[in-house]
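Structure tokens please, single chain.
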Amino acid sequence: MKIDFSQISYEDLESIAEDLLVLKGFTISSRSARGPDRGKDIIAVRDTTDDMGIVEREVYLVECKHFSLSGRSVRETDIGNWYAKMQIHGANKYLLITSSTVSETVKDQLAAMTKAPADVRKAAFWNKSDLIELLQQHEKVRNKYFFSWESEADAAANYLYNHHFSAHRGAICWCPGITVIFGNDGYDPEDGEPFNDANQRSRDEVVQLRRQLEARGLDELAFGKSQSGYTWVILVRHDDTEELHKLVWTCYPTGSSNNQAQHNQTFVHLHSYWHFPHKEHCGDCT
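Here you go.
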């Protein structure tokens, strides 16, 4: 999933920082408020124990700089005298978080404190690349602030592959007003295997389905595939899931995986999912 920091506000960046710090075992003892904050956005506290059983309290002064729109790096003038800020807030650690990059001068300043053996204070930074890596590791935080129908489609495909694999194709209500149409029928070849007739039939099925959706004036929100590539899905803004369930079966040639027995089996397996959404909310669904 592409993470675009220009989609979020400064307050969102602060909230992302808080969520990620909590996942690293910190307690947020102070948050930025309206008005003068004396150079801090967040105070985060964590107790660590070394191998001798000695407990050290880490008190982090966290500053967030949201420069994703301009793309410019964080400079000395942007952070000012962060040594003094640490003293004001009783912090022994400093963390700079930015949605862009950090200038070489600021990097050198932060590194100098960390490398000084006589100084118990330490400093670090998370730049755009670091934030992206952390957000990719923590899906719930990422999805809380960055939504795309494409990532939602991939999630639906993986769910259907893992939990409804016995249904060759069909549709379920994914979230209110959103239907996911799917095929568990080999859209991509298996690893190391050549493209085959079954893969072609699956792709022809998708082409035919898209024509039928267009003819009905239904917009495709996104197309997605399971991690294996075997299962495909199309997300559609439509609340008659049963109608779309029946439609997808007309788009695949009759035969071994499209016969009355398969229809009956899939009906039994899926019909309860036509009226009760799998998720309470996603994107702008209502």
